[in-house]
Divergent PAP2 family protein
Amino acid sequence: MLQQMYPFWAAIVANLTAQLLKPVIRYIRTREWDWHMALESGGFPSSHTSTVAALTLAVGITDNFSSTLFAVTLMFSLIVAYDAANVRYYAGQNIRITQQLIKDIQILTQTRLDDPIYLTKVKEVLGHKWIEVFGGILLGLIIAGLMYFIR
């Protein structure tokens, strides 16, 4: 089973490993456990990029690095990595700016904006910094490489 579905399982293991590493890395940096990070997006390493990097390497190994399928997975991986570090990251920045503007307007105008839309809790960390993306890529490549040798 593992041999037939090696690209799929490499991607799954890379994703789960990245998600489980997030609270551990946070603990190393802050000395505080936050197990919720294992279920959230954002943080180091990027699980999106670890997943697609593992998938791409596994497809290259199994189907040849000159195959059409490898080309498709490589392009897919580049899009995911770009999206994680740019589109999703800046969407999170826009959320942060918008929330600060709402606070500033309330303070400056002495007006309480109590419409439910202004009270909606929105996650600010949607994407990744480039270092988090590169960490995810490296992790994905390591996982796919290790799984290739143990399959």
Observations:
- The chain has a mean pLDDT of 86.
